[in-house]
Each structure stands twice: as C-alpha cells, then as structure tokens.
Amino acid sequence: MTPLFDPQLPANALLPLLVLASSLVPGMIIFFLAEERVRLRTVLNLGGALMKLALVGFMLWGSYQGQRFEARLPLLEGLDLVLRVGALSLLFLALSAGLWFLTTIYAIGYLEGAPHRSRFFGFFSLCVTATVGVAMSGNLLTFVLFFELLTLTTYPLVVHRGTEAARQAGQVYLAHTVLAGSLLLAGTVWLYTLTGTLGFVPRGFVAEVAETHPGALRAIFALLIAGVGVKAALVPLHSWLPRAMVAPAPVSALLHAVAVVKAGAFGIVLIVYDVFGVEQAAELGVTGPLAAVAAVTIIYGSLRALFQDDLKRRLAFSTVSQVSYIVLGVAIVGPLASVGGIVHLVHQGLMKITLFFCAGNLAETLGIHKVSEMRGVGRRMPWTMAAFTIGALGMIGVPPLAGFITKWYLSLGALEAGVHWPLYVLMASSLLNAAYFLPILHAAWFAEPDPAPTHAAAADGHAAPSRAHAGWLLLLPPLTTAALSVLIGLFASLPFSPLEWSLLIAEREFEYPEARADVPLRPGAGSDD
After folding, report:
1. Most CB atoms within 10 A, among 153, 346, 440, 505?
2. What residues pair up with 71 in beta bridges, in sequence order?
3. Does some domain include residue 64?
4. pTM here?
C-alpha cells in the first residue's frame, strides 16, 4: 500500500486530493470572513470553482487516454479511504464542477446584500466537496463517509433563511437522511461480514457468496437502495424534497441538479453495477422490483407536479419523476438502457438547474412564486422565460433537446431487453410532463398579464422581490445551461459529449463492448443511406 503522504507519490494520485481541496480550502477560509469582505469571498468562490474545472478537465483528457487516478488513505485494517477517478466518476465530477461554477455565479448575484453570506458560501463549498467525494469514491466505505458528509453540509443550506418553514423543512430533511444513513451503514457492515471487501469493481464483488447467501444479499440490496433512495427521492422516500423548496433558489438548484438528489441516483448506479453487478442483481431477482419502484416514482412525481400551483414545488415533483429515469435505465439491464440512464445524470442536471435558476429570477424580480401568477411574464422577462422554455421542452423530450436523447436510449434499451412496459411509462411521463409544463409556457408567452402587481406574494410566506430587474449574474447561468441543453442534444455524437462519454462508460466500466454496435440509429449521427 502506498502511503498517502509519500513524497514520491505520483501526480495521478495527487489530483483527486486537489479536486477535493479546491472547494474544501476556500470553504474553510470563507467561514472566517467578515460579511463586508465581498471581493475576497467572490475571489475564493470563483477561484476554487475554476480550479476544480481545470483539474477535472485535465483528468477527463487523461482518462480518455487510459490514465488512472487514485489515492488511498489507510483507515482500518484492510479498509482504506479510496479516491478513484474513472469514466463514470468523471461524468459526475464534470457535471458537479461545471454546475458548481455556474451556481456560484448565480448565488453571488442572488444573495447580493443578504445576511450570513459567509456562512452560506462556506457550507456551499463543503457541500460540493462532499459531492465530488461521492463521485470519486473507490469503495463503499468511502462512499458512505462522503454521502453522510453531504447530509451534514446541506442541512444548514436548507435552513439558511431561519424562518419557521425553513426549520420545519430542515427537520424533515434531517429525519429522512439520518434514517437513510443508518440503513446504508447497516447494509454496508452486513455486506462486509459476508464478502470481506467493499471495493468497487466492474460487474460487482458479491458473486462468490451469491449461491450460499442469496437471501442475505437480497436484504442487503434493499438496505443499500433504501439508504441512497431517500436522497434519490424514490417513492415513498421522497417527501423531504418538496418541503426543502423553502430554501433559497441557489440551494434548490444545488439539491436538484448537482448534489443531493444526483448523489442518490449515482449511488444506485454504483450499487447495481459496482457492488452487485447488474447480471448478478438480475439473477437475485432485485432489478425487477427496482424497475417497478422507478416506474411508480416516474408516474407519481408527474401526477403530483400536475396539481402544484407553487412553481418550485411543481419543479420539485418533476425532479422526483425525472431522476428515476436514471434508476429505470439501470434496472432494465442492458447496454442501451444503462447508457440512457447514465447520460440522464447530465441531461437532467442541466435542464433542471435551468428551471430553478429561472424560478429564482421570477421570485427575485417580480415576486412570482406561483404558476397562476405567470400570465404574460414572457413579455416582462423574455430572456429568463426563453431559458425556462428550453428547460421545460427538454423535460418533455422534444427533439433535438437533451431530454429527447435520454428517452431515445431508454426506449431502445427496453426494446433491446425485450420488455415493452417501460415504453408505456415513458410515454405517459412525457404526456404528463407536457400537461404540467405547456400551460406555464402558454400563460407566460400568450396570456395577457394580470393588471395587479404580484408583490403581495410576501403574505404567503415568501420574501418580497428585492430588485427591479435580473442582472447579468442572474441571467448568465440559466442562459448558459439552456444553451448547453440544446447543444448536447444537437451534437450528441461528437467526442466528449455526455452521450459519447456514457457509451465509453458502458464499454469500459460496465463491460458492454456491444453498446455502440447495438444502436440502430444514434440521434445526431448521420446515416449511410
């Protein structure tokens, strides 16, 4: 075992540590800054985010060339803290680093003049540190440690406003996530007693005990999935997520697109592929129930979103539905379905963060918090609503936007696996997506605006609007993520696109060499006819 602080440690082992430090160090410094040190706090925030982006970009190129990045820290006899960066890790890392940078820009503009900014940005940076730790976890022990650190660092963000509603939402969030952590830890300890290892490997590490302990492995699978399923907002473990929408818009964006919900979905991918192995999980009979839970969550979340007048709650239930596309892709069992699920980590993140950025702009400038208040808002805030429109149409699955690529691959994967019911789930979900997004777009662009001002929203427990218009700090992030949602759909077949990288993951890490050959026609690729 190579000691962590050996002076001869190769650079490829230092890079994962630097990725952690790029947000950990600025965050710890920011905690001690006075509120009036705005410029220094901004430099630390943006400097750390840019450094993380550069480090992840370097590792992307290195990984594409076949390099390996890994650091180990001895914890217990036979158990190390392992930071390992492969193709799958890098997909989540790149998403986290890119969206952290944009969310930081947005949060700087959103919280301008607000109290407790040093506390907010300190926990904000620690939250991202925990998220990238989850992404780089090389074994289940490391994953559990960073997954629980994520709970501790996001709780102060949920309750940041200090209102009674925020405190209640924080209590619900903490109750759910602490229970989930207990289940995850119990499953991890039980698994270690059976297998003697926790290291992630392609096709899993439980095969040797599958014949002798099938019942125990099924129970362990249920414990692990329940443990990460709370953060992934699987039904019936989802109720904390809509409650957490009392948090500021940058926190909502972080929860839905970068950190908590996405970490839960990523955890399910790791459990199915790198702990159990998807074929072994299918033989144990656990992928079918997982697919059923995902399908129920997809439909339930969409139905609940349909009846929400509060805009952020509608988006929250949309997240409940959309994140389970990732789970469904994993549970279908097959190369194309797995590609559809994995690529949705990025697609959903871009589209959903766009929608939350826009919701924050509407609240901050016009005091709009409800769907019923959005009549004619497209004429008052055209750039914000243009970005919102792209995000909404992408969620519906309109080509050539990113959401269409996800649904294309999930549909192909279901057909490849010989199961047709996921097609009906996807069609029903798309119709429901249209039912709760298109009325918003119609009202925003084509309805006459209400004559009365909407600033009375503060009476409903929301803050009154704090600015006359959305400045560039609030407009640049949603316009950027909306543009990316278009570009990664249009140019899905280009090298380093999320789709091409997901195909690389299927080939290298899921050991599906047939992934590319199985695609009859790839969106964005030409035909020989």
Report:
1. 346
2. 83
3. no
4. 0.91
Is residue 1, in this structure, part of any structural domain at all? no
pLDDT by 10s per residue, the chain, length 529:
444 434 344 667 889 999 999 999 999 999 998 888 888 999 999 999 999 999 999 998 888 887 889 999 888 777 889 999 988 999 999 999 999 999 999 999 888 877 888 899 999 999 999 999 999 999 999 999 999 999 999 999 888 888 888 899 889 999 999 999 999 999 999 999 999 999 998 888 998 888 889 999 999 999 999 999 999 999 999 889 888 888 788 888 887 777 889 999 999 999 999 999 988 999 999 999 999 999 999 999 999 999 999 999 999 999 999 999 999 999 998 889 999 999 999 999 999 999 999 999 999 888 899 999 999 999 999 999 999 999 999 999 999 999 999 999 999 999 988 899 999 999 999 999 999 999 999 999 998 887 654 444 443 445 555 555 568 889 999 999 999 999 999 998 888 899 999 988 888 887 776 666 555 555 555 444 3
Our count of domains for the chain comes to: 1
- Strands 69-76 and 79-85 come out as antiparallel
In a domain? residue 369:
yes
**Secondary-structure percent of the chain, ordered helix, strand, coil, rounded to 5:** 70, 5, 25
Give the Cα separation of 277 and 274 in Å (integer): 6
284-290, Cβ contacts within 8 angstroms, sequence gap of 24 or more: 284/210, 284/214, 284/217, 284/218, 284/221, 285/218, 286/218, 286/221, 286/222, 287/331, 287/332, 287/333, 288/331, 290/225, 290/327, 290/330, 290/331
- Which residue in 512, 137, 84, 136 sits closest to 340, CA to CA? 512
Q: Which H or E run contains 423?
A: helix 421-446
Q: Are 498 and 464 in contact (CB under 8 A)?
A: no
Range of the domain at 371: 286-450+471-520
